[in-house]
Amino acid sequence: MNAPQKSEQLNAPHTNAAWHARRLAATPRGVGVMGDFFIERAKNAEFWDIEGRRFIDFAGGIAVLNTGHVHPRVQAAIAAQLQRFTHSCYQVVPYTEYVALAERINELVPIDGPVKTAFFSTGAEAIENAMKIARSSTGRSGVIAFGGAFHGRSMFSVALTGKVQPYKAGFGPFPPEIYHVPFPCHCSSLDDTKRAMEQLFKCDIEPSRVAAIVFEPVQGEGGFNVIQPAAVKWLRELCDQHGILLVADEVQTGFARTGKMFALEHFGVSPDLMTMAKSMAGGTTLSAVSGKAAIMDGPAPGGLGGTYAGNPLAIAASHAVLDVMLEEKLPERAQLLGDRLIAHLNAAKAKYHRIGDVRGLGAMVACEFNDPTTGSPDADITKRVQAAALKRGLLLLTCGVYANVIRFLFPLTIEDAVFDEALTVLDAAMAEVLA
Ligand SMILES: Cc1ncc(COP(=O)(O)O)c(C=O)c1O
To answer: Where in 216-326 does DSSP place strands (E)?
Structure first.
């Protein structure tokens, strides 16, 4: 009973500080919040807080807003659906738009052969269901994931996640038969992964009991680590050799972010199952699992679904998102803006020796900050650059196993003038902290 009484709440000022205090009293610390300001309204790549302050949004609600805040097409689609119905539970009374969206996604995903798609609500839920489908269709239980991976916060998805703090600490024991090997990217070699896999098959589980290997084509929370192309081909061969399913988690990489509709298109490898969420529905709650039809049909009727899975408002939004992505050529725009940002960051790197690796795929771009003498990750400087940008009204996110990476997740629909303004702010923030 420590929350303000109703009468006190009515008289409380509508300021960021007042709401911040109320948040701390009313909600648990486990729901960590980065900002101490509250959003009032938003448009494309900008938003305003409840005190009228403007921000440029280079976070996109963590990769959800590839089509920007409140895209008029998405807004209109949701509004039209609101006039018709908001819920029937697809498993009770189906609606045609769900089926039509599945057909569209089946055409788009880089999976060979006949494909089927099922819808859910969150990324974690998509991962959970992909694992259920993999286990049910193979009759096997083991799952292999990668160090530095992030697959969600539900019990199975967090068990697959390869980062202890803050995601796993204190929440175990986790479901058994989940294993991690090093992720082959710029900071770890494919040979390390091969050796770890060999060791795993020798010491922990025989390959014939492994249902799936799950990977992100570009690790998101892990630091925007792009998987080595040779590693994707090797994973495919390994899976084929042992009857293991290859599962690509495209929750963060999907829907035009990397310069293609899906990141796997860069690698020329077809997975067996794919998970997607985030930018697929313009900020409404929708996720999906797509996969080879025979595998998707593994679970019996009733084994998949959920009360809200494939909610009609989100399905309507997703149809509009796909229209916008194709009509506004967002994959091409992602590549263009990503190239510009990488060039900009490389110019900054030439000036400031604390900037380490600059990397990315399309517009999924990040840069590292390291101690120039030891080369070790510098989370403190990274935080200070983020804070200096925020002070000037540019919202940036950090990531990485060592929290020394700034990642850029601006809407791909961002106006050129706003994008240029953001780069100028970024320059000023880096000059303040790094010069
Ligand atoms: C690659 C990946 N998979 C799964 C998830 C979990 O998605 P959600 O937070 O919607 O459960 C995320 C979220 O950041 C993610 O980046």
So the answer is: 218-219, 225-226, 245-249, 273-276, 287-292
